[in-house]
Amino acid sequence: MEESKGRVCVTGGTGFIGSWIIKRLLQDGYSVNTTVRLHQGHKKDVSFLTSLPGASQGLQILGADLSDPESFSAAIEGCIGVFHVATPVDFELREPEEVVTKRSIDGALGILKACLNSKTVKRVVYTSSASTVTYSGKEEMMDESSWSDVDYLRASKPLGWSYAVSKTLTEKAVLEFGEQNGLDVVTLIPTFVFGPFICPKLPSSVRNSLDFVFGEKSQFGVVLQTDMVHVDDVARAHIFLLEHPNPKGRYTCSQCSVTFERISELVSAKYPEFRSLTVDSSMKHIEGTKGPYLSSKKLIDAGFVFEYGLEEMVEDAIQCCKEKGLPVKSDQSKKNRRLKKMEQRKGRVCVTGGTGFIGSWIIKRLLQDGYSVNTTVRPDPEHKKDVSFLTSLPGASQRLQILSADLSNPESFSAAIEGCIGVFHVATPVDFELSEPEEVVTKRSIDGALGILKACLNSKTVKRVVYTSSASAVVSNGKEEEVIDESSWSNVDNLRASKLFGWSYAVSKTLTEKAVLEFGEQNGLDVVTLIPVFVFGPFICTKLPGSVQHSLNFAFGEKSGFGSILQTPMVHVDDVARAHIFLLEHPNPKGSSSKQIEGVKLPDLSSKKLIDAGFVYKYGPEEMLDDAIQCCKEKGLPVGCDKI
């Protein structure tokens, strides 16, 4: 057998993919050396490998560890090919990302050096991951020509970011080493690997895929749509690349892109004994990400043929779980704890003006999304200000810090910004009664904002600032247009001359927004601004927000509100909060210039730019009104009167 096919090495042979590659190699007539990590004091159970057909004659198991790259030399000696599958996996972030990445790269390069020294290895196939492609800032269909943006991953810290950084930099390193040293190296990029397994432990990708299949809510915050591939197709693709006469570079390996709609249809038809969520009920309210479709055209054009579709993946995985006595629907409480730990490490951000309508809702959303939050409130020497509506938010006891700061003293924000990866500057002077001259209010607003931006620069950790502007910075532009967008600016001279209702606030917001964008451009600080219109909906702050009061007056035809608004665009507060976070996490808000302002989608004020960037609105006028009225009722506030 060995004389006809030769001996190959598979690193990480006890894992999901590695063990299936071994199974396939033995079936195909290869002799196999595989490596497992050394376990001091006890022996690792490898009977699931040694019991494979052909293993007694064709399989050798050796100890090796990525922390000691030279330990792989014995396993590689005499081999004609190497499948480097072993990789550090640390989704719980027990170690710093830099440590994990260094171990991965050093281990991989050590293995490649052993391949060179062997004088027998003709080709190395490195097992990469879709995470090396999908965080590239592109949308829709992608392929192996894309690379994930490591700087973005390190700044935004999405779920699994450390693993994605490690895999991206390791794949780049092995390809570069191969090119520089004349070693034939190709990489395979599988998406979510699904199907049966021979290892004793339920593989995480199978568990997560089953959660996806059966509508487990804990996973919906992670994926709403994903690409999948059968484990046997992945193993076959590895061997295909080893045997191909002349493969080059990277190859994506993905059979299908799966949506909830397709999953729901399949499960309902095939497995009536399992309760599955339907698209028409609770699934439509669940949030999550929709990954881009990864094309396998290059692999298919090279001659590879996928043998399995979605139905086979689901059926084979469920059947395997049943045969092993494993529950098909996993323990949610354990998984929830694990996800909570991972989400808590998403990074720390700062929200100025956290007791306000918008600021408090942004905090609520950030905590839900797994961020740690510093927020600022104006100094309260007598400690009479009630912030219990913030401290009682889910996750606040562990991940919310409230600090004092005031726009009149910009340096007071430094402590809140220190160590943050992003800042939402929401705080703003509001003086509709004109108790102070406009010039005083505007100066306080600009000085405060620029002081905050300087603190962001000094922090060395802040990657992006999202400034909360106002529609008043756009709509008073002196033009008569039915539809305007963020390319317009309000005319400050006209505002100061006409003194329309709210003119002082409009001047302050317009000049402050211009100042922050100019500062960002001049100082290399990533600054984007969001321009919400009339913000409507529920509220968690104790005081009835002015925009909600006016919107309710408008909704119920109360004349008191008609002096300032006869027709107005509106937006739900949750969409506003989500849009802020969207702009923080977006890999590259459109355009290289700092003067990039994002609008809100409502009649007369277009938010085409925000929508084109990928943001999706969840709420319409009906939800805004319903949520606002319900919130007022719950708080015991009257609805639909002239003076609420």
Automatic annotation (TrEMBL):
Where would I find the NAD-dependent epimerase/dehydratase domain in this sequence?
Answer: 8-247, 349-589
GO terms of molecular function? oxidoreductase activity, acting on the CH-OH group of donors, NAD or NADP as acceptor
Highest taxon listed in the record's lineage: Eukaryota
UniProt cross-references to Pfam families, sorted A to Z: Epimerase (PF01370)
Q: Which InterPro entries match?
A: Epimerase_deHydtase, NAD(P)-bd_dom_sf, NAD(P)_dehydrat-like
Entry keywords, A to Z: NADP, Oxidoreductase
Can the keyword NADP be found in this entry's annotation?
yes
Q: Which SUPFAM superfamilies match?
A: NAD(P)-binding Rossmann-fold domains
Give the matching PANTHER family.
CINNAMOYL-COA REDUCTASE 16, NAD DEPENDENT EPIMERASE/DEHYDRATASE
Which family is this protein grouped under? Belongs to the NAD(P)-dependent epimerase/dehydratase family. Dihydroflavonol-4-reductase subfamily.
Question: What's this protein's name?
Answer: NAD-dependent epimerase/dehydratase domain-containing protein
